[in-house]
Amino acid sequence: MTRKTALIAGSTGLIGRELLQDLLDGKEYDNVVAIVRRPLGIQHRKLEEKIVDFDKLGEDNDIFAVDDVFCCLGTTIKKAKTKEAMWKIDVDYPVAIAKLASSKGAKKFLLVSSMNADPHSQIFYSKMKGRLEEKIKKIPFESVAIFRPSLLLGERQEFRLGERTAAAIFTKVSFLFAGPFKKYKAIEGKTVASAMYKAAQQAKSGITVYPSEQIQELGS
Ligand SMILES: NC(=O)c1ccc[n+]([C@@H]2O[C@H](COP(=O)([O-])OP(=O)(O)OC[C@H]3O[C@@H](n4cnc5c(N)ncnc54)[C@H](OP(=O)(O)O)[C@@H]3O)[C@@H](O)[C@H]2O)c1
Question: Ligand 1 mean position to 1 CA, how many Å?
Fold first, then answer.
């Protein structure tokens, strides 16, 4: 059986590091290309680590000649400091990666977006994710899968007070997230990663959007 090559962006993040492990452990991929801005600090026979300048992604476009692309990039306004800088990381980099991969013949693009992504939202974050989705949907792939998780749970290397507090509250009142409110239930980063991995193995063509409750079902 011919196995495939995956490319992952954001493999040092909460979702990305779990997904990288799934890609390395799974039998579907022979090669896993991780584009990073700092060393991952792990070695694996399938892993091809590429330290790149994300502002100059087109310089080595052979990297993007892969089958499936997984994009888990993103930042926070606290880290990025300005909306423009955040937009560059959350929108411009994923779009650049998608365009390069599409031009090199990649078949599938799997993107982490967010619950409430809406290009017309008055809220900057939701609008940014909505605009990202719009742009990605226009880039030709056999299959595009967009994941819209709710609040993410999991161990982070950095401390995020707002997220920590929200996670504690969400976990305490998780019984409230039933029926129509299921989509608001917080979700583990590793569940999102697992759903992305599984979705990539399905023979779905066209654009599929996964709300948080479907991510939960698929990834569990
Ligand atoms: N937090 C939530 O509750 C939540 C909810 C729904 C959706 N989301 C979205 O889900 C996605 C993944 O979230 P996450 O929490 O897994 O992300 P994360 O832990 O913050 O990781 C983000 C990834 O993006 C990379 N990155 C950030 N800035 C970069 C830059 N300037 N150049 C290159 N790479 C850069 C990071 O690399 P470095 O390690 O090098 O910084 C890391 O690999 C994000 O798009 C986020 O908006 C988050």
Answer: 34
CA atoms within 13 A on the CB side of 214: 12
Which are the contacts of 116, defined by CB distance < 8 A and separation ≥ 6? Answer: 123, 126, 129, 148
3-class DSSP assignment, residue 219: helix
Q: Nearest 5 degrees, angle CA 37-CA 42-CA 46?
A: 95
* Residue count (the chain): 220
129 belongs to the catalytic site: yes
Q: From CA 35, how far away is CA 150, in angstroms rounded? A: 25
Averages of pLDDT over runs of 10 residues in the chain (220 residues) are 89 97 96 97 96 94 96 96 98 98 98 97 98 98 98 80 73 73 86 98 95 96
Is residue 210 part of the annotated active site? The answer reads no
Number of structural domains the chain divides into: 1
State both tokens at 26: 């799974």
Domain that holds residue 57: 4-219
Cα of 105 from ligand 1 centre, angstroms: 26
Exposure string over 26-39, b if 16+ CB within 10 A, otherwise e = beebebbbbbbeee
Alpha carbon distance 127, 30 (integer Å): 37
CATH number reported for the structural domain that contains residue 164 in this entry: 3.40.50.720
3-state secondary structure of 8: strand
Listed residue (98, 88, 80) closest to 9, CA to CA: 98
Is there a contact between 157 and 191 (Cβ–Cβ < 8 Å)? no
Q: How far apart are CA 10 and CA 211, in angstroms?
A: 21
